[in-house]
Amino acid sequence: MNALIPINYDSDKPTVSARELHGFLEVGEQFSHWFDRMKGYGFAQSADYEVLAENDYNPKGGRPSTDYQLTIDMAKELCMIQRTERGKQARQYFISVENSWNSPEQIMARALKVANAELASLKGENKKLKTTNSALAVDKQIMQPKAEYFDELVDRNLLTNFRDTAKELHIGPKAFVSFLLGRKYLYRDKKGNLKPYADKQTDLFEVKETYNEKRNWRGTQTLVTPKGRETFRLLIAGA
Predict the structure, then answer these.
(1) Which residues are bridge partners to 45 per DSSP?
(2) Which residues is 209 bridged to in the sheet?
(3) pLDDT digit string (tens) for 110-155?
């Protein structure tokens, strides 16, 4: 059947203009009066019709005109209420529109349209995530050397060798080492290197791999932790 009245497919269901339907039905009554009377048959806004924004321009002059978008079900009922040949013709037309809308082909077409829209949205989100990840990777490459340098700086500031620790405690380096050896905090290994006893290493000392570029020497060095410095300060002060 040819399109007797334009159908709007912008929403989730097809709708039709109340003014277009009024014009096709050739109702002699003024549109606003007719539609107010039709609403009295139990039709409800949002469920059966929506109010369109008023047109900014009315070619006939006066106040801007108002239109309504009707569901196909409401449009069919209005056609029956008119009890005219035009009403019967329009009702048959709306039935064909409804049948077409609910056909398997149209249902699949709408489902495919929704799926494509969701896929496009996911692709957009994925593109944003890739851009964000790329930016984070660049930031990581920039910040990694700074982080490593900061860690080394913190270690150097928090961990001190025996000479610097002795200086902070206002005691001679040899006297400080003798104190640690005498109290069984340290021992000398076979090479004569100072090493902490296992039970003291966890919080008073830290053994770190060390590399001296000037002497091209690599080995281990025992360093004193902040807790170790405070412990030895109290012990020496109370000695």
Answers:
(1) 49
(2) 220
(3) 677 767 777 777 777 777 777 777 767 766 676 666 555 445 544 5
Q: Do 4 and 17 form a contact (C-beta atoms < 8 A)?
A: no
Domain boundaries, the chain: 7-102, 107-153, 159-238
How many helices (H) and strands (E) in the chain?
9, 8
pTM greater than the 0.85 cutoff: no
Backbone phi, psi, residue 160, to 5°: -125, 150
Which tens digit of pLDDT belongs to each residue from 154-164? 455 588 889 98
Instruction: Report the C-alpha gap between 166 and 194 in whole angstroms.
Output: 15
Estimate to the nearest angstrom the gap between the alpha carbon of 82 and the chain centroid: 54
Helix or strand holding residue 68 (H, E): strand 68-71
**Both tokens assigned to 239:** 């000695």
Q: Which residue has the higher pLDDT, 200 or 154?
A: 200
**Residues ≥6 apart with Cβ < 8 Å to 50:** 15, 68, 69
Q: Using CA atoms, how far apart are residues 71 and 98, in angstroms rounded to an integer?
A: 10
| More confident call, 57 vs 47 | 47
The CA-to-CA distance between both ends of the chain, in Å, stands at 110
Q: What's the rounded Cα separation, in Å, for the pair 119 and 113? A: 10
* Range of lowest pLDDT (156-165, 173-182, 183-192): 156-165
